[in-house]
Amino acid sequence: MKKIIVLGGGGFIGGHLAKRLKNEGNFVRICDIKNHEYFSHDEICDEFIKGDLTDPVLVAQVIDEGVDEVYQLAADMGGAGYIFTGENDANVMHNSAMINLNVAKESVVKKVKKVFYSSSACMYPEYNQLDPSNPNCEESSAYPANPDSEYGWEKLFSERLFLAFNRNYKLDVRVARFHNIFGPQGTWKDGKEKAPAAMCRKVAESEPGSKIEVWGDGQQTRSFLYVDECVEAVLRLMESDFLGPVNIGSEEMVTINQLAEMAIAISGKDITINNIEGQAFFDKYGFKCPTGVRGRNSDNRLYKEKIGWEVSEPLRDGMVKTFTWINQMVLENSYKI
């Protein structure tokens, strides 16, 4: 049995990861600024510490001697409406960087055997993601650096931070760049949800014959990875000798309109799409439409080469499970009103 700490285990990916690790018989301690909204503590950990990981004193208490693995997923982040408006840049950079600085230092002090850091595809250069049909997110394309958001810049800095601690202090690290992870038991409303959850919620809340709003022209492309496959990929990376950085994502690329159409088809409702952008968007929301880069798709060749495994679940399968869960959440919340 391993002693494992999941930082950010009160969040979406962290909660699923912690649950898997606990189910495999490990001792799991979680620290997060919030409780998990959909999993009970008993489901995902043996010990839950609620606190702010930007505090170095707390991190020193959470990471103690004898820890086998630390999974660092804690960050200040959200969907396009949170990351790309510019209104949260200072908090995103300060809070996430402070967490990572604390975790890296304390992991060395306490002689943690292995540390996983979750980076993001947002760190890739914007200039390689202007063509929605042919984005370049190969790991070697990261430099010259030019992320499209401050969130991406912080992720890039923290990658280098953990790898520097590996070089200078022999901290055994693994670094992965997540590409749009989605699934149930995650944020699905209030502005921090990612695109798959947003589409599922909009469709679930809509009546037949109505329209759902899709930000931008809908031709921007992305790939999305179901959370169970993400967890499997993380654990396989941790078992390997490869430090990374390496992509963890799906290579099944779709447009945002196609993603919305998929959610509509799964629902069985007669719903159409209303794309909103430009001046119409600004008049309604008061800020420029936050669509991110024009194209982004995971390049999994390095992961296949180094780990010998690849994701297999089609996007639609994950969307069916996600829509089913979010639809139930919408129904339950409507009953509460």
Automatic annotation (TrEMBL):
Q: Which UniProt keywords apply?
A: NAD
NAD is among the record's keywords: yes
Entry-linked Pfam families: Epimerase (PF01370)
Q: Where is the NAD-dependent epimerase/dehydratase domain?
A: 4-249
Judging by the UniProt lineage, the source's domain of life is: Bacteria
Asked whether the keyword NAD is assigned, the reply is yes
Name of the protein in question: NAD-dependent epimerase/dehydratase family protein
